[in-house]
Amino acid sequence: MSAETLLDESIRRKLEPLMLTPQRVRAGAMKGDRRSTKRGTSVEFADYRNYTPGDDLRRLDWNVYARLDKPVLKLLEDEEDLAVHVWLDTSGSMGFPQDGDSAQNKLTYAKKLAAAIGYIALAENDRLGITAGGKSFGPARGRAQIVPMLRFLQATESSGQTDLNRALTDYATRATRPGLMFVISDLFSPTGHVDGLNRLLGKGYEVVMIHLLSREELEPPLAGDLRLIDTETGAPQEISLDDGLRELYVRRLDEWREGIRTDCVRRGVGHVSAASDIPYERVLFNDLRRLGTVR
Q1: Three-class DSSP category at 90
Q2: What per-residue confidence (pLDDT) applies to 232?
Q3: Both 207 and 113 in a single domain?
Q4: Where does the chain show beta strands of DSSP type E?
Q5: Higher-confidence residue: 33 or 205?
Q6: Does one domain contain both 146 and 258?
Q7: How many domains does the structure of the chain reveal?
Q8: Are residue 50 and residue 119 in the same domain, yes or no?
Q9: CB-facing half-sphere around the CA of 233: CA atoms within 13 A
Q10: Domain range spanning residue 34?
Q11: Mean pLDDT value of segment 205-217
Q12: What is the reported pLDDT for 202?
């Protein structure tokens, strides 16, 4: 699958009119080239910022460029800059199902979601950063970065274990521009994720948690005496799966998922529960719109 197929042309057309909208005003955010959500449009000069490849050349201040030989953009009072962060879980469990339809593979699904969110951000000239598997794309800005962003995501693979608390805490410690952050993960982490989430919130991030599971994890199709292998550690587990054990599994899974949702709501974190056999467009156009994060 080529990088461009992460977002086909029909999806890109649907993404064009959309924008990402944080629910809280970001204190100290620098001015930028973002469409304002305020009523009215100010044409009063506010500030300059350095030109970034992909910026609209019509916004260059050619007088400053002639004097200083330095490309800068003029910014207006109403224009807002938004820092958009995407953290993508690439642990071994995200590679499930391995032998199923690639469209239902959790990492493939997650990459398409991340690509769509990144497309909206870059098309709006927001400041985008993506972290996946310990590697980073950005910070980047502008439409010229869309293809490099897609190539970065396409090259991402699943492997190993992820300590979510450590990963999110490290991210909160390193990043200098808090903003709107999307965490896309199955949340299978022995240490949990709450401590890392608290660190992000304490640093001023507005977090949207996209909890992604496969249909087989939600409704196990297996039965009988089984030997299950942990996709991250390789550890085996012998079980006898009958109707009673399956019902217990589903009940505890539902309790776990509901506990995550409740905890997110209590902390003011946006929460979306997704299954990889459901079209990812539904997350974009229904769930994130319902949260008010996409408009």
Answers
A1: coil
A2: 56
A3: yes
A4: 45-50, 72-76, 83-88, 127-132, 135-140, 180-185, 206-213, 224-229, 236-241, 270-275
A5: 205
A6: yes
A7: 2
A8: no
A9: 9
A10: 30-80
A11: 94
A12: 93
